Structures are given as C-alpha cells and as structure tokens.
Amino acid sequence: xxxxxxxxxxxxxxxxxxxxxxxxxxxxxxxxxxxxxxxxxxxxxxxxxxxxxxxxxxxxxxxxxxxxxxxxxxxxxxxxxxxxxxxxxxxxxxxxxxxxxxxxxxxxxxxxxxxxxxxxxxxxxxxxxxxxxxxxxxxxxxxxxxxxxxxxxxxxxxxxxxxxxxxxxxxxxxxxxxxxxxxxxxxxxxxxxxxxxxxxxxxxxxxxxxxxxxxxxxxxxxxxxxxxxxxxxxxxxxxxxxxxxxxxxxxxxxxxxxxxxxxxxxxxxxxxxxxxxxxxxxxxxxxxxxxxxxxxxxxxxxxxxxxxxxxxxxxxxxxxxxxxxxxxxxxxxxxxxxxxxxxxxxxxxxxxxxxxxxxxxxxxxxxxxxxxxxxxxxxxxxxxxxxxxxxxxxxxxxxxxxxxxxxxxxxxxxxxxxxxxxxxxxxxxxxxxxxxxxxxxxxxxxxxxxxxxxxxxxxxxxxxxxxxxxxxxxxxxxxxxxxxxxxxxxxxxxxxxxxxxxxxxxxxxxxxxxxxxxxxxxxxxxxxxxxxxxxxxxxxxxxxxxxxxxxxxxxxxxxxxxxxxxxxxxxxxxxxxxxxxxxxx
Length: 585
What we know:
Layout: H1 2-57, H2 67-70, E1 78-79, E2 85-97, H3 113-123, H4 129-138, E3 142-148, H5 150-159, E4 164-173, H6 181-184, E5 186-187, E6 193-194, H7 197-200, H8 202-206, E7 215-216, H9 221-237, E8 242-249, E9 255-261, H10 271-274, H11 278-282, H12 305-315, E10 325-326, E11 331-333, E12 336-338, E13 347-348, H13 350-356, H14 359-369, H15 371-380, H16 406-412, H17 422-433, E14 437-438, E15 455-456, H18 460-476, E16 490-500, E17 503-517, E18 524-531, H19 545-563
Parallel strand pairs: 1-7
Antiparallel strand pairs: 1-2, 2-3, 2-4, 5-6, 8-9, 8-18, 10-13, 11-12, 14-15, 16-17, 17-18
C-alpha cells in the first residue's frame, strides 16, 4: 500500500518540475529576443548618428540662394567699353531628334522621314530638307535645329511626332551678330569659349562669384562697325582674298576696333568656319575664324620706312633732314639689286624719301644705322616675339632671329626680309607718334589714369619730328588718298610682294596703309590691310596701297573721328614751317 500510494505523488512532482523548466526556457528565449531587438535598434541609432555626424563634418551645408543668385546667367556677359552687350546668356528652345522615343523599340516616326521633314520645312523655311531627312534616317540622336522661338516650338509639337522633342537649354547669344566676331570668338557645345575673348575669359565668365558683373572690353561698337564696314567695302571693290584693320589708342594701348575679313557669325558657327577641306587649305585659303590681324605675319613693305628714319634720327645718324642721298642707281647686294619702281630723282632728302617711298635711299639710311642697332630698336618695339594682346591666336615674327649684318639692315630698312602681324605695326606706330612710349595692345577696358607706363623707345623730339614727316606724306606723297579733310591724317603706304615657293610672286601684293590722327596731337593709330588686291575700276586699275588701302583709312577716319571726339577743323594742323621747304615740287 505504501509503495503504490507513493508512485502518484512522484509523477506529480516530476510533471511540475517539467512545467517549470519549460516556462524558464520560454522566458529566457523572450529575453534573448528582446536583447537582440534592442541591439538592432542601438545599431540603427548608431548608424543614424554616424550618418548625421558625417554629413555635418564632410558634406557642405545647404546652399543659401537668394532670388538674385537664381536669376544669374550661367555665363557672364561681355560688353563694349560703353556697356553695349556683345555676348550674353539666355534660355532657349531646341529641336532634338530622339530615335528611342518609342518604348516598344519600333520606328521612332509615325510617318515617313520625308513627310516629317516637309512639315518642319514649312515651319522653318530656311531648313535644309534633304539634310533633315538624312538625320532622321540615320537613327542617331541629335539636334535638328537650335534657337527656336516659343511659337515655332508649339508648331513642332502640333506635328504629333514623339521623336521630335523640344528641349530647354541655355544659349550664348551675340546681340550684334557678326560684329567683333574675331575679338569675341564663340562658345562651343561643351559650354566653353573658343578662339577669342570667350576663350580667354572662360574661367572668369563661369565663376559664380563674378559672373554677375559684365566684362567690359576696350572695343567701341560704333568704331568696330565702321571699321568692318569699310574693310568689307574695300575688300570687295578690289576683289581681295582678305583684309584686316585696327584702331588703337596711342596713349593707352586700348584696341577700339579690330577686324579680320572674311568674317563669321558666332551665333551660327559652321564647320567650314573652323576647319576647311584639304583641297581648300592646299589652295591657300584660311578658315573664317583665322585672325589675319594678330595671327598672320606679312612683309609689310614700305610702312617700315618711317620706323627706319625714326631710328636714324633717334641715334643721330640723321641730324639734318635736308641731307641728300643718291637715288638714281640701284644698290647692288651680291647678285641682287635694291631699286625703286620708277626713277624719282638724282638725289633725295629725308622728307622726299618718305613722300616718294624710295627703297634706294631707305636702304642707305638703314645701312648707316647698322644691323645691330636697327634690330635692337625693332625688338624694343615688340617685333622680336608674338604680339602683345590677350587673344590666344598670335603669330610669331619671321626674320628677327640671329645677328643682323649690313645686308640684313638694307632690306629690313624698307620692310623686306622681316614678317610681322599688322598688330605689331600698329603698336610700333603708336610708339612713334605718341612721344616715344611703347605700350602693349589690350582688349581690356582701361580706366582713365590707369594706363601702363610702357617703355621709352624714341626721344620725344624724335616722335615730334616723325609726326611732321607722316603728315607730309599724306599731304604731298603716296598717302594723299588717305587725307580726310579736317582730321590731319598722317601715314605711310606699303605694297609688298608675297613670297612663294620660288621667291616673291610679282602678281600678288599685300597693300597696307598705316596712319595716325590728328597729327597735331596724335590720339589714334589706324591700320588697313588688303591681302592680294586686284587692279579694278574702283582702284583705277592699280594694286598698290595708295589706291586701295589709303582710301579705306580716309573714309574710316571721317566716320569715327566725331564719335571719338575728334571734330574736323580745317583751321588746325601740325606746324610744318621748318620742313615744308625741304619738299620739292
């Protein structure tokens, strides 16, 4: 009995212990799960705190932008010296062809490319329909047209072709069209400037801290327009292949106008404006963006004769303008001879030499100056390196290297054997007429009173004498056709044969007129150059500078003089009383 009675009690104790162990294990599992959950939450909190700390320490804070900042253009504005906009940014529409417009991968166009191109032609009459068809058939994405007006964009949408997409983009616009194109350059599709001041000022124009302030150039749009107009007119009248010109402030070096022809429109850059086919380059053509004034070097011929005379006066080689040199016989230099185009006289003095543009006497004067001295002066005038100006395309002179002997001086004295850019010549003439100070040319506007000091090349007395001689040339010599009444123009012609494979080509000339005005107190230098002019009715069938380049300067000075504050005054002129008697009949 006792044994049987105890068995149930033992089973009861065993069952109670089992229940207790089960509850304890369940409680332990619950606690472990709670700890795991808390650990996960702690890890997430630590990650969040770490992220917040990283953002605060490593990442820049949120940008605070005012309404004015948001309205700033992506690229700064360029203006002329008077604030006239030359280049600015503005929002525009463009027509883009998207061949992936259909999600199912089918044909991007509902109708045929020919029909679509015809519809676009009706919206844009100047569109090349065959070119558009070719682009649509190519299956490649690309622009069909840029700079679209809002109303034209709506018409394109009405065509109903999903592949014709209208996009919004920032566009660089040149309000004055092709004016000053070689100064400005253009902005390429990558948003960066090319060729001109757009390239030079690229970082400045894109800088968020500076792009609100327009960049003022030294260019005067009124003078620039007149220069381009007269160069174009002169080039076409004599069927020249190109032309170049500049108007330079002699006291500051500021370029008021700079032009090269043929020109281009920076609003619509063509492939051939930048790169020409090989057959055209082999024929001697240059792309339109090529700057003849700063990048092409020429032998500028007789325009160097006044510089040679200035050196001779400055060094004391010439102390008497009435001194006479023989002019009847060519000068033999080895197997070559330096002669004049026609017989001028048996002897010539300095004023007569410049008035009649004698190679023979100019060479003799250069020979007396000597090669080393002439080379040194030309170097001080900046002709031993690329011209000083901000533009990236600048041509290096030819013929300035090595030591100059007497033979080199004989030829360089009248502008042969040395090739420079027309900009070199303009800066040298500015130094010759402004009192003798050479300053670098610049396209940046200079505030009054902040002109660079420059370097002295000629004595002030030499400069004063050269102003008289330049005026005599315009009154009595080869520069007569440049004498704008009342503006007291002075200057020198230069007509040089272009070099070729087998020596100089007698049928091709570079005609140049280098001038300054008003000669009683010179303020501006003007250079006009024509590349390969022909003898036409407009030039009395002559090819030399006296008949084609000089008239350009005359018309230009008459137009820009009043704009620059130089009014015509027939009662004023430089005093020529001590040199007029030296000029023969």
